[in-house]
């Protein structure tokens, strides 16, 4: 086992799942949650998507121009 | 759990208990931590389906292709075994790539888990070799010509290159000798991978799992069973659904149709393309006009992965608290996806130039890693919060804080 002995916590459930309202909690404040996700991650999403889309569009444009260049 | 079942304190069972039941796990690990066990499931599926396929497969150049068709058409459930094995390989690589990228994002490779990371890279290398060898076995056009192209790369080695290639082939071209030894190795290597996985887990269990915050989680651990067992089970079910979509609705979408043509040494396919999981490395190989240079570049990919824990200078693990590294991570992911796309394109403009730039971009991530940690530390030091702190004091705080690597 690990080199450092650790005390394990035991999680005790005292509320029945039928009273926890897990699924309704998922949909609660959905617009706020979506907005927060967007504001926190839009830069990362752009950093991922823009190079891929931009490069693909560049390649397609290049091929199209080459076809036009070879057309009589 | 051991308190309720005293048998778990007995020898053998106690090992099982310490590593799988009462094993301390950080309470805050997300679903990104489920890909490890999922990879183990994929390995298990590949071994079981592979063993049953091997009962009906014939490793001879005149019979291999036909034996695979025999499995598909005549063997009861053979179509399922074949599709599970072929698509299982793709699933295995999807899961492992996600597992690797999770490690990159959350700094799971950094101290004290360097050995875990290095063993993981060894497993990746073994998986790549196993998958490449396995793809040769159906003896289709892509099997034969892919094997010819990749094994020929060894001839780039100065002085002994040609001798090595002849030794690998067992002759003067990819032929029956090659197929037989590839079948033998493809049966052996998964068990070597299994051994590597056990050592990988042993190394992991030395210090325990990382977590999304990248901090020392000794203060808040919960037992693996039932919490992480149930979490992993949810992932396994989701994976089974995803896997089933490919097996039952699109079993050939990840493959190449040319591999349904029996191998013909007299007819070279127009575009020799490996399976999708090799495309990024294939793109890097093709980016360099020189054969030895291309082989060296592939070697450099794995050397960079091995070296990552040792060239990392950041005191902070998780990219959640490293804004510059976070952006670089997403750029690396975009770069790898672009390399994958370039790998299946023909070698002509503009794909050649894009591939070369993307290859440089891939290595740039590793080249900048040693500088990045220092740069981020200096940015923190130069910020208003840390104006009064000297670099020595800052370093002392980092080293003793729960947010840091050591």
TrEMBL record, chain A:
Keyword Electron transport: yes
Name of a matching Pfam family: Cyt_b-c1_8
Topology with respect to the bilayer: Single-pass membrane protein
Subcellular location: Mitochondrion inner membrane
Chain segments annotated as transmembrane: 42-59
Keywords: Electron transport, Membrane, Mitochondrion, Mitochondrion inner membrane, Respiratory chain, Transmembrane, Transmembrane helix, Transport
Gene Ontology terms: biological process: mitochondrial electron transport, ubiquinol to cytochrome c
Gene Ontology cellular component list: mitochondrial inner membrane; respiratory chain complex III
InterPro entries (UniProt xref): Cyt_b-c1_8-plants, Cyt_bc1_su8_sf
Protein family membership: Belongs to the UQCRQ/QCR8 family.
Protein name (database record): Cytochrome b-c1 complex subunit 8
Lineage of source species: Eukaryota, Viridiplantae, Streptophyta, Embryophyta, Bryophyta
UniProtKB/TrEMBL annotation, chain B:
Gene Ontology biological process: mitochondrial electron transport, ubiquinol to cytochrome c
Superkingdom, taxonomy of origin: Eukaryota
Membrane topology per record: Multi-pass membrane protein
Binding site for heme b b562: 85, 186
Annotated Cytochrome b/b6 N-terminal region profile domain residues: 1-213
Residues spanning the membrane: 31-58, 79-102, 114-137, 144-167, 187-208, 229-250, 295-316, 328-343, 349-368
Cofactor: heme; heme b
GO cellular component, one term: respiratory chain complex III
InterPro entries: Cyt_b/b6_C (IPR005798), Cyt_b/b6_C_sf (IPR036150), Cyt_b/b6_N (IPR005797), Cytb/b6-like_sf (IPR027387), Cytochrome_b (IPR030689), Cytochrome_b_C_euk/bac (IPR048260), Cytochrome_b_N_euk/bac (IPR048259), Di-haem_cyt_TM (IPR016174)
Binding site for heme b b566: 99, 200
Molecular function via GO: metal ion binding; oxidoreductase activity; quinol-cytochrome-c reductase activity
Protein location: Mitochondrion inner membrane
Binding annotation for a ubiquinone: 205
Sequence ranges assigned to domain Cytochrome b/b6 C-terminal region profile in this UniProt record: 214-383
Co-factor binding comment: Binds 2 heme groups non-covalently.
UniProt keyword annotations, A-Z: Electron transport, Heme, Iron, Membrane, Metal-binding, Mitochondrion, Mitochondrion inner membrane, Respiratory chain, Transmembrane, Transmembrane helix, Transport, Ubiquinone
Main subcellular localisation: mitochondrion
Function: Component of the ubiquinol-cytochrome c reductase complex (complex III or cytochrome b-c1 complex) that is part of the mitochondrial respiratory chain. The b-c1 complex mediates electron transfer from ubiquinol to cytochrome c. Contributes to the generation of a proton gradient across the mitochondrial membrane that is then used for ATP synthesis.
Entry's family note: Belongs to the cytochrome b family.
UniProt protein name: Cytochrome b
Source organism per UniProt: Physcomitrium patens (Spreading-leaved earth moss)
Lineage of source species: Eukaryota, Viridiplantae, Streptophyta, Embryophyta, Bryophyta
């Amino acid at each position: 086992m690990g080199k450092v002995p650790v005390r394990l916590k035991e999680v005790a459930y005292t509320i029945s799942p039928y009273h926890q309202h897990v699924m309704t909690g998922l949909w609660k404040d959905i617009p706020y949650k979506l907005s927060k996700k967007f504001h926190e991650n839009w830069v990362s999403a752009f950093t991922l998507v823009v190079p891929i889309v931009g490069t693909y569009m560049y390649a397609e444009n290049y091929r199209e121009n080459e076809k036009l260049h070879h057309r009589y | 759990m051991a308190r309720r079942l005293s048998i778990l304190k007995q020898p053998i069972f106690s090992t099982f208990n310490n590593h799988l039941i009462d094993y301390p796990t950080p309470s805050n690990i997300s679903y990104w931590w489920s890909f490890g066990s999922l990879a183990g499931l994929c390995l298990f599926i590949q071994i079981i389906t592979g063993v049953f396929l091997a009962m009906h497969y014939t490793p001879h150049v005149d019979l291999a292709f036909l034996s695979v068709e025999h499995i598909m058409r005549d063997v009861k459930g053979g179509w399922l075994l074949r599709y599970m094995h072929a698509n299982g390989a793709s699933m295995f690589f999807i899961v492992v790539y996600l597992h690797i990228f999770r490690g990159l994002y959350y700094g799971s490779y950094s101290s004290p888990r360097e050995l875990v990371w290095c063993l993981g890279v060894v497993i990746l290398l073994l998986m790549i070799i196993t998958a490449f060898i396995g793809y040769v076995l159906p003896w289709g056009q892509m099997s034969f010509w892919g094997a010819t192209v990749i094994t020929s790369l060894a001839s780039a080695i100065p002085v002994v290159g040609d001798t090595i290639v002849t030794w690998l082939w067992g002759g003067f071209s990819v032929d029956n000798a090659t197929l037989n030894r590839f079948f033998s190795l493809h049966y052996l290597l998964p068990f070597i991978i299994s051994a590597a996985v056990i050592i990988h887990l042993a190394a992991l269990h030395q210090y325990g799992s990382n977590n999304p915050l990248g901090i020392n989680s000794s203060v808040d651990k919960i037992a693996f069973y039932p919490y992480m067992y149930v979490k992993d089970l949810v992932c396994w079910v989701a994976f089974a659904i995803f896997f089933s979509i490919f097996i039952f609705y699109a079993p050939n979408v990840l493959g190449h149709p040319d591999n349904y043509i029996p191998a013909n040494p007299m007819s070279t396919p127009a575009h020799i393309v490996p399976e999708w999981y090799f495309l990024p490395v294939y793109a890097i190989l093709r980016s360099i006009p020189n054969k030895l240079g291309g082989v060296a570049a592939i070697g450099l990919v794995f050397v960079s992965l091995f070296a990552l824990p040792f060239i990392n200078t950041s005191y902070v693990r998780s990219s959640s608290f490293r804004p510059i590294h976070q952006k670089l991570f997403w750029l690396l992911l975009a770069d790898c996806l672009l390399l994958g796309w370039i790998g299946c394109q023909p070698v002509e403009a503009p794909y050649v130039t894009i591939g070369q730039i993307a290859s440089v971009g891939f290595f740039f991530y590793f080249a900048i890693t040693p500088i990045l940690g220092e740069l981020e530390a200096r940015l923190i030091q130069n910020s208003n919060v840390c104006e009064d702190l000297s670099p020595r004091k800052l370093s002392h705080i980092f080293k003793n804080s729960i947010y840091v690597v050591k």
